[in-house]
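Subject: for your reference before the review

Hello V.,

The reviewers asked for a structural picture of the protein, and I figured it would be easier to keep everything in one thread rather than splitting it across files. Below is the amino acid sequence we used in the manuscript, unchanged from the supplementary table.
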Amino acid sequence: MTAATDGALPPWRQRLRGALKREGRQVSARWLQLATVASDGTPRVRTLVFRGWNGADQLELYTDGRSSKIAEFNHQPQVELCWLLTKAKQQYRLRGTAAQVAVSPDQAQWRSLSPSGRALWGWPHPGQPFEPAAPFPQELPEDAPVPDHFVMVPISLQQVELLDLSHHPHQRLLWRRENGWLEQRLNP
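And here is what came back from the structure prediction:
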């Protein structure tokens, strides 16, 4: 077992950083699948874009506050993300707790998005019936006002599991916050 040293990144973050480098500029390297539970108890999975870290073990994800994800987070804040990095042949499963935080207009998250990325928040309410006349802008400028439904969702991680398919036998590792991110090897 290997432990994280004080002030340093947990061992899984260091491995993830290396895997992301191997992915290069591949757009899909920033895509994560988020699993939530709906209020009726059924599972939901969707793909989100990784936006960044807040500290050593908290992911930042952006979403539309009008989407069903927000009600799902309020119903059951425990979530799991799956991050598949194909070139590195690694799959990360990140388990944690989601908290809804609205981004205020003076924060840099909105400005950090590309014009086409910001445009998604100019679209009509997600999941509602399609209206052909509704606006679907392709871009929004940096100085566009931050919509009230632009939400940053921090995910505080409690557990990370790695399945590394580049080894024989495959390597499976587990880290838990509650034990100081000690690394434990598991059978694949």
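For the response letter, the relevant points are probably these. The helical segments are 11-23, 68-75, 108-112, 115-119. The first helix runs from residue 11 to 23.

Happy to draft the paragraph if you're swamped.

O.
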